[in-house]
C-alpha cells in the first residue's frame, strides 16, 4: 500500500526500497506491459493464418447441413486460438455477407448470435457507407441490401444509421424546390412566343445538360430501394416521410421497387377476384421474409398497406402499366360486389373501402395516366372502372385532375405545358380537309391528358364558332373515358362564373354560350356520351331561376331527336306539321332529319333514368313568368323577350320530344292530371294542357282499341260509337278536373266539356293535310325516277334507295288513310257534343269574351300550329252550327282591337299571333270574295244571326241573317280597324310596338291589305319608319324594309274601296251621313245606308293618306266636285263651301233638331264640334293620339309634298281646313270629323252640353256597374236588320267593347266605351 501511495524518494528514505531510480524504471516497464503491449492480433498481416481460417470458414458452401450455430462455434475457437480481434472478426463477417448477400437466412442469425451491442454494428455499417462518400464514389447495392436486411430484423436502428448517410435532408428539400422551379420555367418557355431559331437553341442546350448531368450518389434512396425490395415497408415509409412528397418515387428505381412490392402483396387477391376471363398471366413468388407484409387475400386486406403504398407512389405508377391495370380491375371487381351487396352492415363496412378507391383514383390513377405515353388501352380499362361510379363522383375526380393535380408535381407541370403547346399546334392546322390526320393527333394527345386538351379546344370554339364542325368530326378517335371527360369540360365551361352570358349591349345572349350550345348538340348526337350531367346542370340552373342555359337543352333536343322549333316555317311546312309523325319528319322541318333513332333513345333513357323529364317541363313552364318578373328585373326588354321566347320554345320542343318518344305507360306514369299540374305544381294552364294533351290522345286510342277488341264489328258506325264511348270514359275525369281551374262564374257561359275539348284537340284531329301528303309522295316518286335515270349509281345502291323511297311512300299513304279515319271520328264526336258546349245564361257578348280570354288568346300564341288550330277551331265551331255562338262577334273581337295584344307579345309570339290573324283573314276573305261561298258557308248559320236589343223604350228584338253585301261592309270595317291599329303602333316610336306590328303585318300580307287606300296608308307609315330607324335601330329598319318591299309586290292584288264593298248611298233630301226618320230611308234597308255611310266616313284617314299618289289625288278631287251637288263629301269634311253646300248643311242641321224634338230620349252617336270631340275622347282612350293631332300630323306630311302636287284641289282643302276657326266649325256643324285615336265615326249633329253630361253619367255608370241594361247594350251584332225608321233612335249610350291585353301571361279584359259609329253603323 505504501509503495503504491508514496513517492519513490520517501520510500527510499524509509528503507522500503533500495534505489528510487531503479524503482521508477520498473514501474514504467510494468505499465507499458500492462497498458500498451497487445496480447491479440488485430491485423491480418500480424496473424494471417487466423484470419485466413476465418474467411475460409465463412466462405464455405452453405447449401448443406451447415448452420450458423456451428460456424459461430468455429469462429469463437479461431478467436481464442489466434487472439483475433472480435470487432475485426465482425467486420469480416459483414464483408463476407456483403459478397454473399443472397444468403440472408444464414448470415442474419449468425450476426444476431455473434454480437451483443447494436451500436457497434451500426457504427461499422456507417463507416462502410462513409468510405463510399467520395465525390465520384458509388455505393454498392450489396451494402444497401445488408443494411436493409439488418434494419428489417431490428439488428440496427434506422435513426442511428440515417445520420451516416448522405445527402443531408436539407439538400434534398432544396433539390426538390429547384426541380419545381425548373418545371415552371420550362412551362413558361413553352407558353411564350419565341422565334423558331431560339426554340432550336433552347432544345439543344437542354439535351447537352441532360447528357452532362450525372445524378449524385444518394445513399438514402439506395437504402430505401433495398428496403422496398426485401419488403420492409415500415422502415421504407419512415425514410420517405423524411423527404418531400413524391420526391423518392420520382426516381424510377424507387417507383419500380415499390410497384414490385405491390405486385407481390396484391397477387393472391387479384388472382381470386380480378383476372379477366381467358387471361392467364404469370404467377409471382411471395417474399420469403416473415417480417415482410402479408399478401392480401380480401378487399379488406388492401387497407392494411396497399392503399398507403399507392398514395406514396402517386403519379409514378405510370412506370408500371401492368400494376395500373391490376388495380383498376380490382376496383371494378370491388364495385360489382358493392353494388350487389344488400346487407346494410356489410355495405357500411364497404363504404370506407369505396372512399379509399375514390382517393386512389384521384391521387394515383388519373395522375399516372397523365404521365403515360399515349396508352389508349389503359384509358379504356380505367373507364370500365369509372363507369360504375355515378356521374357526380366521376365529375368530381375530373375536376380535381384538371384544376389541382397538375400543380402538385413538377413532372405534371411540364406535361401540362407540353400538352397545351401540342394542342395549339394541332388546332392551328385543323380544317375540314384534314380532319382525319388532325383527329388522330387529337386522339393520341387525349389518351393521356384529355382535360388540358379539351379545355384548350373549348376555349378556341368559344372564340371561333366555325371550328365546331371540324372539331366534332375529329373527335372520333377518342376513348370512352375521353368522351366522358369532354362532357365534364363542357359543363365546366358553361358554368364558368367569370364569363358573362350576355353581350355588352345587354340585349343578346353571348356568342360563346351559343357556340358551346351548338357544340353540345353536335357532340352528344354523334358520340355515345352520357347526358345525365348536362341535363342536371340545366335543371339546376332553372331551379336557380336562370334560363340562359335552356339554349343548350334546345340544341341537344334538336340535334339528337330531330325536333326543330322555329316560327319561320313556310305554309307548306306548317301544313305538313299537322299530319302524322312520318309527314312531319319528311316535310315539316328545314333540315332532313336522318338517323336520330339511337340518339333520341339515349336522350330518352337519360331523362327517365334520372327522373328529369317532368321536372324540366315544369321548371320551364314556371320559368316563363320567372323570366319576366324575377329574372328580367334589370335586363333590357329585348333580352327579356328573347329569354321568354327561348324558354317557351324549348318547352314546346321538349314536350314534343316526350310526346313522340315516351311510351304511353311512361308518359301517363310521369305526367299528373291537369288539376294537379295547375293547382299544386303551379303550372300555367296552357303549358299544363300542352303536357297532358298527348296523354289524352294515347288513352283514348288505347281505350278505343280495347273496345274494338272486346266487341268485334267492322261497320263504320259501330267504330264511331266505340270511339265516342272511349272519349267519354277518358275525358269525363278531365271535365271534372278543369272545373277547379277557374271561378264558378266562368262555367255559366262555357261548359267544362267545351273547355276541355278545345284544349285537348290538335290540328291532327281537325283536318287531313291532303296537299302535304300528295306533295311528299310526289317528291318520292321523283326521287325514284331520278335513281332509275342515274347511270353512275351502283345497282345494289340503286336497289336500296328505291326500296327506301317506296317504303316511305307506303308509310305516308298509310298514315294519310289512318288520319282521315281519325278526323272523321273526331268530327262526328264534335257534332254530337256541340249542343252542350255553350250555355245561354248570359249574353253572347260575355260568352265570346270568355271563349277568347280562356281559350283562343292563350293558345294562339303558344305555337305556330296552335295559332292555325285556333283559327280553324273557330271556323269549325261556326260550321257545326253551335248554339249560342256568334261567329260575327268573335271575328269582330279578334280584328277590332289588336293594339294591346300586339304590344304585349314577344317577338315569337307576335309571329304566331300574326299567323293566327292570317288564318282568320283567310276565312273572311274566302267568304268576302264570292257570294255563293258566303251563302253556302254562312247564309243560314246561327253564327251570322243578328239581334239587337234595345233597352229602356220598346224592349223589342228581331232576328235575321246578315246578308252578303253587309258582310262586305263589315269586312271593310275590319280591314280599316287593322289599318288604324297598325298605324298607331308604327307611330308610337316604341321598339316593341313597331317590331311586333311589322312582324304581324308581314304574316298577314297574303290577305291584308286588300283595299288600295289602306295599303297606301300603311306604305306611307312604313316608309317613314325606314327613314327614321336606318341609323338608330337597324333591326327595325331591316324589318320595315322587308315588309315595304313585299307590300309593293302586293299592290297589284289590291282593289279600290268601291270594289271591295258597295259604297253607293241612296239619293235623299237629307245628308246620307245621318240616320233619321225620313223618306230617304223608306225604300231601302236602313242597315245598308248606315253601313255605307259609316264606311265612307271611315275612309277619311285612308283617303288623306293617298297624297303621294298624284293621279289618285286628281281623280278623287274630280269625283268630289262631280258629286258635291247631291252628296256630302265625307272623306275630309273641309272642301271649299259653296252656296249649294251651305243650303244642304243648314237643312241637315234643321232636320237634326226636328229629330231631337221628336225623340227626346234618344241621343246622337257622336259629337261634331272639335272641343266636344276632344272632351269625349279623353276619358275613352287617353293613350291614343287625339284626332286633331293625328290629323295635323298627316297635314304636315301633305304640306311637305305640296310642291310636288301643286294646284290640286285635295291639297288645298287640307290646308284650308287647318285654318278654320272653332266658330266656323260651330256654323258648319254638319261636317264629318273622324277620330283616329279612338277610331269612332262622328255624327253630323252637334251635341248640347246637357246631353253630353247625361251621356257621360250613363257611361260612367255602365263602366262601374254591371246591370241588365249593360248586358243588353253589350250586343253581339254589328249591323241591324231593316226595321223601319226607328232603327238607331233608342240606344243612348256607348257600346261596351272588351279589349284584351296580355298581363303576366294572362289575358285581362279592360272595358272601353266605343261609339256606334266605330262598328260602321
Automatic annotation (TrEMBL):
It comes from Cyprinus carpio carpio. One of its GO terms (biological process) is mRNA export from nucleus. Residues 442-517 form the THO complex subunitTHOC2 N-terminal domain. It is found in: Nucleus. Component of the THO subcomplex, which is composed of THOC1, THOC2, THOC3, THOC5, THOC6 and THOC7. The THO subcomplex interacts with DDX39B to form the THO-DDX39B complex which multimerizes into a 28-subunit tetrameric assembly. Component of the transcription/export (TREX) complex at least composed of ALYREF/THOC4, DDX39B, SARNP/CIP29, CHTOP and the THO subcomplex; in the complex interacts with THOC1, THOC3, THOC5, THOC7 and DDX39B. TREX seems to have a dynamic structure involving ATP-dependent remodeling. Interacts with POLDIP3 and ZC3H11A. Residues 1112-1138 have a biased composition (Polar residues). The lineage of its organism: Eukaryota, Metazoa, Chordata, Craniata, Vertebrata. Residues 747-1047 form the THO complex subunitTHOC2 C-terminal domain. One of its GO terms (molecular function) is mRNA binding. Residues 770-833 form a coiled coil. Belongs to the THOC2 family. Residues 197-218, 1061-1276 are annotated as: Disordered. This is THO complex subunit 2. Its main location: nucleus. The keyword Flavoprotein does not apply. Keywords: Coiled coil, Nucleus. Residues 198-217, 1095-1111, 1139-1159, 1168-1234 have a biased composition (Basic and acidic residues).
